[in-house]
Amino acid sequence: MSGKNNLSTADWLTPRRFALLLSALILACWPQVFLGLETFVYRDYGYFSYPLAKYFRESFWRGEVPLWNPLSYCGIPFLAQWNSQTLYPPALFYLLLPFTWALGVFCLLHMFFGGLGMYLLARRWTENSFAAAFAGLVFAGSGLMLNSLMWSSTIASLAWMPWVVSRVEIATRTGGRQLIVAALCGAVQMLSGTPEVIALTWVIAGVVVLSGGGVKPLVCLAGIVLLVAALAAVQLLPFLDLLAHSHRTNQFRGDTWAMPLTGPVNFFAPLIRLHPGYHGVYCQPGQQWTASYYLGGPTLVLAAVAVFRLRQRRVWLLAALAVLGVALALGNAGKIYALAAHLPGLSVMRYPIKFVVLPIFIVPLLAAYALAGVPAG
Q1: Which residues neighbour 371 within 8 Å (Cβ) at sequence distance 6 or greater?
Q2: Fewest CB within 10 angstroms: 116, 154, 173, 312, which?
């Protein structure tokens, strides 16, 4: 299959058909959640996400903006902690609909949204629908995405990643109204509630813009960032004030919840050196943030083929960023985290394992390039 063919002559996996395929797969995996017969409960979904959303819902129906939560730890900030999704527009889904059903479906809909966004991004880059469908399915079904179903904020931020990267790239190339569209997408993700995922999204977007060359795209990128900051200031300013008064500093140790040295194997062999946790789910020794970040052996092989065969600037820059993400996820063992932890913003990222978001996003795109067999545009 040649990636040089026009989209109109590509295979039959059109956006509509891919959306139907992805939705059917998600529905087949969790029919009981969609039917309202069961809901998620594992770990932080029951301990954190559900109580947080429940308090938000109660405040909403009382006509209050929940600035403070008196029910946890003798009282803690609510809106300012960011991951409460107090200002995230799609949260209306579980505020207005039957709660126990809606919160679980809210998470699954974001899984679908993320997979569709990755498909559209890869399709535009490769002009190959099959390759794009592969990337979309891998991203939506990755171990990290599955693990993030227990956090409504994390899965929402992950879902918006491909949309933000795509719209930012288009806006920096064309300008005009696309700058507003990119800023709106960025602002919605900014309100979704996971600072680390949001920050890494903009790192990826910056690398993509940089790969295109030229000064004008960088100026447009700076303008988009300022617009996003202005639109999301109502959330960012309280969070930054809370952060300034919190105990989060660059003194966090790089070996706290870091990927073990054998961790890279778990990208393609999910149970190597893992042990069952107290809930029966297998976890890596030394970190409990994610039980999996599995991508699959074929995906990694295809990504390597893209790097060594295509030799294009975007492919190489993205591959380097993915490798850097793995090195940072290793914490002190990766020899880079101690230096990066002193950079502004990254100094408050508590757990090194969170840098695994970079390869989770990038590797499916590299695999799509290999399947398409075309150079990066």
Answers
A1: 126, 128, 130, 131, 134, 302
A2: 173
CA angle 296, 154, 327 (to 5 degrees): 50
CA-CA distance, 121 to 199, in Å (whole number)? 19
Instruction: Using alpha carbons, list the distances in angstroms from residue 83 to 86, 165, 250, 353.
Output: 8, 21, 21, 18
Average pLDDT, the chain: 91
Residue 80's contacts (CB-CB under 8 Å, 6 or more residues apart) are 67, 238, 239, 241, 242
Q: Could you tell me the pTM of the whole model? A: 0.93
Angle, helices 195-212 vs 177-190, to 10°: value is: 150
pLDDT in tens, 360-371: 999 999 999 999
Measure the CA–CA gap between 121 and 127, rounded to whole angstroms: 10
Half-sphere exposure of 34 (CA within 13 A, CB side): 11
Q: How far is CA 127 from CA 14, 159, 314, in A?
A: 11, 22, 16
Helix axes 195-212, 152-174, angle to 10 degrees: 20
